[in-house]
Automatic annotation (TrEMBL):
Top-level taxon of the source organism: Bacteria
CDD domains: IMPase
A Pfam family matched in the record: Inositol_P
Keywords carried by this UniProt record: Hydrolase, Magnesium, Metal-binding
Enzyme Commission identifier(s): 3.1.3.25
Enzyme class: hydrolase
Signal peptide (residue range): none
Protein name: Inositol-1-monophosphatase
GO biological process: inositol metabolic process; phosphatidylinositol phosphate biosynthetic process; signal transduction
Reactions catalysed: a myo-inositol phosphate + H2O = myo-inositol + phosphate
Amino acid sequence: MTDPADQDALKAELLAVALEAARRAGELLRDGRPDDLGVAATKSSAVDVVTEMDIASEKLITAFLADRRPADGVLGEEGASFEGSSGVQWVIDPIDGTVNYLYGRPDWAVSIAARLTAGDGETLVGVVHAPVRGETFRAVLGQGAFLDDKPVRVRPAPPFAQALIGTGFGYVAERRARQAAVVRELLPRVRDIRRGGSAAIDLCDVAAGRLDAYYERGLNPWDFAAGDLVAREAGALTGGRPGEALSTELTVAGPPGLFEPLQAFLDEHGAWHD
Ligand code: LIP
């Protein structure tokens, strides 16, 4: 994919497909949520849950993608995984914020990203659709980040002691204890902490200036792929430990001037390990 016109045409097509897939899944999830929704399965612990709607959402999205982009690869949180031949891979979180969804809380989203399989796996397109909030974040590489049709930009870096920091916690008790120890050190040094329950939404809230910064250990690519691009296209820096890309080890996002001291603080306090 070398010709700029070809690149732009591909990005436009991928964005349109991602938006429609997210819209259809969001409609199913918002309007079809059973009143007696329960837990269909658990993963890393008894509180790491999957509902029938996570599975239904991923099935809807993967079927839509197979119809529109049959040669693309797919990686989904609930098991969708197949190689493609097009050089594009979709990364899907059918419900990011599953526990919020299970409890009928509003902060959950459908997160869909499209990335290249060659090179360093650049993400070209990211969509985070939060139906109960009535919000859709989107970003195309090099073309900015939007909340619905409005451009979004990160909030300028405040002094560290005035920063509103988002974070999240894992599903295994030992990791949560370690994460609590890091929060214990951070909380008295910043304005406050927010724990929303959806990494995709948290990253988009950094993009929109609703959080000054965000960090979390233990995320999977489907949690952060789309929100990372939205945050970066809104002017955030993202990464893991100093000098490293964001990963399951550690995800950090924030404006220049706050990203760096937060990243250094987290590294010093071992937020990157259990
Ligand atoms: C969630 C993340 C959240 C994290 C939760 C969970 P899921 O993803 O978005 O940031 O704190 O523990 O991992 O499991 O709802 O797709």
